[in-house]
Every structure is written in structure tokens, then in C-alpha cells.
Amino acid sequence: MKKLALFTMMMFILTTPIQAAEGDIVDIAVGNESFTTLVAALQQADLVGALQGDGPFTVFAPTDEAFSQLLTSLDISAADLLAHPDLSKVLLYHVVSGKVMSGDLSDGMTAPTLNGQSITVDLDMGVMINSANVVSADIEATNGVIHVIDSVLVPDDFKLAPAMMDDMAEMASVDIVDIALSNPDFSMLVMLLQEADLVGALQGDGPFTVFAPTNDAFVDLVTALGITPEELMAQPELASVLLYHVVSGKVMSTDLSDGLVAPSLNGSDLTFDLMSGVKVNSSTVISPDIQVIDTVLIPEGFVLEDINMMEEAVPKTGDPILFPMVMLAAVGMVGTGFMKKRSK
């Protein structure tokens, strides 16, 4: 029965469609929208370089949903987890030295992980690593293999003592990227920031004010433009578009006045209009201070390049395509000279 269960489960796993990928383990994780929290945790724990080494390694990779379930069960935020002093130990508990394919597994086998503790394979009910189900197997990388699992593997000695969490709360500096990571609606934004190499910039001292599109906003955008998320990520001006949603300084609703103009970090200005509600360019702010706006901000002159190097004009802000946006304000003082009056 075990052999039959294993065969049935492995046929399900191996025939489950997975996105073809190339590169090392980190490259594949970065290119998969299901692993944004894992990638952020690897960056925070300074393990990216290690997993880009020769290896080979076998990584049991928890999805964003797996991390979300862990955070709920521990009653902590993503920022709390990223700030945990044992974060690297938890991550290394998911890595085994050597390339272990699904066909190499046997019921009851144990394997030492890079954190020193062992994990156990159970084939009684499908394929399980400890208590986590393998949901996609044998995603090969140049330096190893990834198996996708549906829950985070937690070492036996991992503790979340209240006193430790109090210390972490005092020590941790929650930045804009932390906030985006803590909200699953921003997983696409995080991926784009990673692709455009802007994560480090937004983890800087700032302060910054960011107009952050939700996943639904990006889905609506690529649908309206008739492109795929991969084509959006490949745009040479991606960084420019993202930086058009960022201004220097912390801007609260009480700081706004009619006609204020704010230079974004891509060099183009954003204009505030208070004549009828609160608008940024032609986008209406519908909720103050975690401010939701109703259209995507597109820089003037931006063009969309398709795979055939053809150009298609992108709708400018104010055209009748509405997307939900969220504005996240980092803690800090508004910079001197941040905004100026619009010329009448």
C-alpha cells in the first residue's frame, strides 16, 4: 500500500504543472511569485549568497501561503518573523546538502539539514517532510533542486518567547518593504521591486511615501495592456514606473494643500488637487493616511515594449482604467523643500 500511495502521489506531483525556470536556486525562487516571503527572508538572513553557491542543495521551499499560515498560528507579523534572531536557523532547516530528487526518497528516511537538525520523510499519506506536504517536486536548478511544501518546517528548539518578541519590537525598524511583505496583496509589487533592484533603496533611511499597487491592480494592468506579468517584469523602464510611485519624505493627509507638487523619485512630478476631494494627478484618494487611490500612475512619455521590440503607448494617468492603489508612509520627517506650489 505504501508503494501504491507513493506512486500515486508522485504521479500527481510530477504531473502538476510548474513554471519552467532556469538558473540557481535563488534565481528560481525570485522568479516565482509564490516565494516572495521566502526570498525576503533569505535576504534578511543573509543567505542568498550561500544558496547561490555551487552546492548542490536540496531546498524544501514553503510558499507565501505557508508563511501566512505560520504567522497566523504564531500571532505575529511578517516583520516580526524577519526580525527574529533565529530566522537563519529556521531557513537552514529547509536545506539539505546534496541533490535529492523525489525518486531518491524512501519511507522513514532522515536527512540532516544545514541547521544541524534532521528532517524525516513519511510516505504513508503521500509525500511528507515532517508534517509538510510536498505539493510540487523536482524543480531543478543549476546548483540543486527545489521541492515545494505547503507549511513551514519549524525546528524543535525554535522559541517565540514574549520577552524575546518585546526586545525584537524595540530593536526592529519596520520599513516600507517589511510592510509590503506583511500584506499578501502586495506580493506582485514585492516581486517587481526585486526585479528592478529597488528593494534595498526602499529599505534605506528615507523617509519615503509610496503609492503601492495591489496584486489586483497589476492583474488589471497587464490585462488592459494585453501582456503577461513576465512581459511587465521585463520592461526596460520598469524601475522608472515604480519610482513614479515614490516621493521623498513622509506625507500625511494633513500635509496636503491644493496645488502642491511633489517630485517623484523618477524625476516626474505628482500634483495634488483638493478642489473636489483629494486627488494625486487624476487619481482620487478615497481613504486618508493609508491612502487608496483609484488609478495607476504612469509617467509621461512611457512606452510599452513587446517581445518583438514594437512600441505601444501606455494609457496615461487619468485615462478611464481604474486600479486600486494603497499609499504607505514610512516613519520620518518630511524633507525640506519636498513639495512646491504649482505654478498658476
SSE map:
Blueprint: H1 2-15, H2 25-30, H3 36-44, H4 48-51, E1 57-62, H5 64-74, H6 78-82, H7 87-92, E2 95-97, E3 110-112, E4 118-122, E5 128-129, E6 132-141, E7 144-149, H8 162-171, H9 176-181, H10 187-195, H11 199-202, E8 208-213, H12 215-225, H13 229-233, H14 238-243, E9 246-248, E10 260-263, E11 269-273, E12 278-280, E13 283-287, E14 292-293, E15 303-305, E16 311-313, E17 325-329, E18 340-341
Parallel strand pairs: 1-7
Antiparallel strand pairs: 1-2, 3-4, 4-5, 5-6, 6-7, 8-9, 8-17, 10-11, 10-18, 11-12, 12-13, 13-14, 14-17, 15-16
Q: If you had to describe this structure to a student in words, what would you say it looks like?
A:
- The strands form three sheets. Strands 9-8-17-14-13-12-11-10-18 form a nine-stranded antiparallel sheet. A seven-stranded mixed sheet has the order 2-1-7-6-5-4-3. Strands 15-16 form a two-stranded antiparallel ribbon.
- The radius of gyration is 23 Å and the shape is elongated.
- It is built from 14 helices and 18 strands.
- A hairpin with a 4-residue loop joins strand 13 (283-287) and strand 14.
- The longest helix has 14 residues, at 2-15.
- Helix content is 31%, strand content 22%.
- It is of the alpha+beta class.
- Residues 1-20, 167-172, 307-311 and 317-344 have low confidence and may be disordered.
- The protein has two domains: 2-171, FAS1 domain; 176-341, FAS1 domain (Roll).
